Amino acid sequence: MKLSVTYAFKAQQEKVFAALVEPAVLQKCIDGCEKMEKTGEDIYAAHLKIGVAGIKGSYVGNIRIEEKNPPESFTLQAEGKGSPGWVKGTAKIQISPKGDGSELQCESEGQVGGVIAAVGSRLVEAAAKKMLGEFFRKLGQQLDG
Amino acid sequence: MVTTTENAPEVNASQGYFGRAMKRVEDPRLIKGIATYVDDLKLPGVLHAEFLRSPHANANIKSIKTDAAKKLPGVLGIFTGADVNDKAGTIPCASPLPGGKSPAHTVLAGARAYFVGHPVAVVVAETRTIARDALDLVDVDYEPLPAVIDPEKALEEGSPLTHPELGTNVAFTWSLPAGDVDGAFKEADKILKIRMVHPRLTPMAIEPRGCAASWHAGESSLTLWTSTQIPHLVRTLLPGMIHIPENKLRVVAPEVGGGFGSKLNLYAEEAVVSYLAMHLDRPVKWIEGRRENASATTHGRDQIADNEIAIQKDGTVLAIRSKIIADVGSYCQLLTPAIPTLTGLMLCGCYKLKAVRVDLTGVHTNKMSTDAYRGAGRPEAAYMIERVMDLVASELGLDPVEVRLKNMPESTEFPFTTATGLMYDSGNYQAALKKAQDLADWPKLLEERDTARKAGRLFGIGLSTYVEICALGPSKIMAAGGWEWACVRIEISGKVTVITGTTPHGQGQETSFAQIAADRLGVPIEDIVVLRGDTATAHFGRDTYGSRATALGGTAIVMSIDKIIEKTKTLAAALLESTPKEIEFKDGKFFINGNAKTALGWGQLASEAYVAKNLPAGLEPGLEASSFFEPPNCTYPFGTHIVAVEVDRDTGQVKILKYIAVDDCGKQVNPLLVEGQVQGGIAQSIGAALMEKTVYDENGQLLTGEFMDYAIPRAADIPDFVLGSTVTPSPSNPLGVKGVGEAGTIGATPAIANAVVDALSPLGIRHLDLPFTPERVWRAIQEKEGQS
Amino acid sequence: MIPAAFDYVRPATLDEALGLLGKHGEDAKVLAGGHSLIPAMKLRLAQPKIVIDIGRIGDLRSIGERDGKIAIGALTTHYEIESSDLLGRSCPLLPEVAGKIGDVQVRNKGTIGGSCVHADPAGDWPAAMLALDAEFEIASPRGTRTVAAKDFFVDMLTSAVESGEILKFIHVPVTAKTAAYVKFAQKASGFAVAGVAAVVDQARKAVAVAVTGVAAKAYRATGVESSLRGLEISAATIATAAQKAADGVDALSDIHASAEFRVHLARVYAVRALELAASRG
User: Fold this and answer.
1) B425 within 8 A of B445, measured Cβ to Cβ
2) What is the C-alpha separation between B278 and B188, in angstroms, rounded?
3) A40-82: per-residue pLDDT in tens?
4) Which of B492, B578, B686, C157 has its C-alpha lying 20 to 30 A from C57's C-alpha?
5) Do B697 and A86 count as a contact with CB atoms less than 8 A apart?
6) Which ranges in B670-762 belong to alpha helices (H)?
7) pTM
8) Interface predicted TM-score (ipTM) of this complex, two decimals
9) C-alpha distance from residue B573 to each of B492, B583, B629 (Å)
């Protein structure tokens, strides 16, 4: 499952980058993120309750920030498991100046397994798109007010 | 669905039972819901097991944390591979091929899980609900690895390995060089090439698997009740796994809700549940859920074949070269390697090919293993050869019926030995074909197609003239004996008990064996009980699969009855002060030749035999005999199926308009049962042809694990059948019976396939693989129309 | 196949149900016919701590005329709709849709309200609701509010019903007989791969066409509608207009049908729905 998202910010490139590698900001932007704790350099343990409508599952896992190249790019690796199954995703983020603000491009790749993969495959892609969209909208709110 | 049966064998109701279309004695209890399946068993103190299964297709298991789950009230224990694997053995494969490489498959995963559904741990609890809740608390740390999914890519250099320790994804190779293939290809006028894919299928028996085990500590013996087709084979194979003597194990198949080959196996769960019952000294029960069944019960088929066919201009098919890749999944169960070899052996179909060469490669991928599924290798063969015959016809501009007739042996040429070395026992392919054409009103069908085509409709006619191999089989070719056993007992009351070593699970032998026995003994059928499925009662047997029960089990019954009649003649002679040579047996009575007034019936004779006051010297009391029937050959049922379909050009949907089947299974004990088997077989073929396919995604996730996504036919999908039969007795057994359990599944898919391709042929489509889902058909049409 | 543990309560009135829902919030799920919720619970994809069974709230199971429209209680079963004489006469699209849902067992238990609130992207009702411009009457402790169909189906599995609210009634207009619902069913589940509801108003030369199963939520095929506005409905005009049946829509893709095939089917079934609807005039 591959998704591509582009988002424009009023905020400048450096500000966007800084926000994205800040766990407190990440937690606010991930809908259903109940906990995010630093467990190592650029590694965070996370508790997520995500899904669509009533079909929400609790996932425990971690998020790693890699290949940091401030203020232009980094890669986010996430994996989690819960009773509905497991999720794994990679997002390559690129931020570039655009006009007065900046533009973010996110190329993400994800995999799921377990019950959700078997019975919910059509939900998974839609849920992922929605989550990604929500994430950047919330980030935009955080940054641009 | 309406069935019209043409020409049911004529039976006078006042005469014998053999040949009579009787309702089954099994059915009232099944329909009323008072039959006992594994889940109905009430075992005092029973514990419930639930298996935690890998959600990864391939992963190292770094750790399994069970503390939280163990704390749940009602949980008696949580067991992993470390706890049970050295106590419950590895899954046996009874048919390994020379040079084959497969992992030693432990009952629970060891260091690695290698298919989605692989059992990793088992929870035992007081209730099933608690056991299921406990599964959510077990924390397994998996390290996912790349999954091997595509069997052709798996053979490429540099592919990840399903089992790194084996160094290869090749599970086995097998070659069948039969006749001078190169010579035949040199002499050919034309060589046709065609690639054919038979998708993986999920058997989906209505009752998923399940078992319950009870350890009798005082006797150190175990009883295992299991939803199985093979209690005897389980009793042979399980002892070595759980370290219990064979004669301390009783295996019982209670009512079994369908098997279709998916229960022709010994499974990890059976060994684990048995071990747990012994270890915990309490009965343990496990019932499979549907998703488990879809992911961890054997799958069927899954072959890719590249075929080359050497033909003459006049339609003679000289030879076939076939390279087959069989995706056998991640390990071998009981008969995994044997199944595709049956495809090779039956590849000539009912034709006089000069030569055949099959090169088979079994490939390990991160999927559940494949094994027998109704037809077990023969549907794949029939699909290929019958598509080939149509391809030959279309390539040469010949009539597909004429091409078949040209290559068939005459009925006088039997027994007929094929290029692959099989001796077909008897056959009259031409008669079945003609009868099917008559029932189909062939000329009218051709006219209908003409008219439809002129109106631009995609109307197609397909046929298949199939043959198959069943009634397995002579012990020389079977892994652990191919004989069958029966015991017949005249009780002291004169009632009759028949014990069969076969294990019917829906086939109806409780009725048909009673019919056979009733006729042979001359007793009312109501006086006969047929017992099966319990190794304590049917102490020998080779169970039910390969359409063998009636041919082999029925014969063993007849042999036993004949022994009893012999003995009873001696007893009657003594009682009538005559000699055995003077005693005649007719209509259930023994009398001195020519003097009906001296007649003695079974009731009297049985009483004498057991009360034993008047037995002649040397004659043992009792009227019971058992026999083993060792068949001299398999049997080869055959038939012709004719199908007319119409394809909706806009949606790709295929509608079956007409279905005619003429099947020859030799003599028919009960035509109602024959009809039922043919209907069921055709229904499963319709599924395989039009809608069924087991799908794993590129990560090895099973996407067809529920009936929400795996489509099987419903009543509305099944057309009205016109069924007929011809009767060509088998010389392979005294009953003349061939077996019909799988014939429908073998003959039907190719006929439907040929019909669909015929419907699409005006567009220039030459071949299309199964299943003919609407999108697949639509795309084929789009591709062709895009080209024009 | 065994749900996680849950509490079960069966309120007798709507107010009682709303009270319970308010009290338990995120921990609760409303149970109507159960044929979407219970399968999800059995797979443990949904794990509500408390199930509020509203199935016995009698006032919500009804079909009646009200203010020139037809009010259908949210708990009315698909079968009750399928067999309703009133609807057969006054809004025949609905019985036609009902008869195509699932199978007999599902139709006897499943409810129109439950189905709409569940908002399955492949459910049959949303297409009809959109084509009819139905109105959804939603109850909460604060009173009732009405939401138009076009605002009711928010996203995949998400309706406008907020937590703490319960759908009460669905109001549909009286229509002519020139309406139809056709669908290409997913072979295994019976859900719509493409389902098209069409309502034809021959006098006004206007059509309403709604499509389900093709995208993340059901939608009005406005491209088709505007292409036919003011034109005579004929095979030719339908054929041209129907090409727009999936315009501007992100089609779903799964093992049963690719996005491309879904788009194609939307067009094919738009033709079939419009032709069938028009033929009933």
Assistant:
1) no
2) 64
3) 888 999 998 877 766 778 889 998 989 989 889 999 898 889 8
4) C157
5) no
6) 671-690, 743-760
7) 0.95
8) 0.95
9) 19, 6, 28
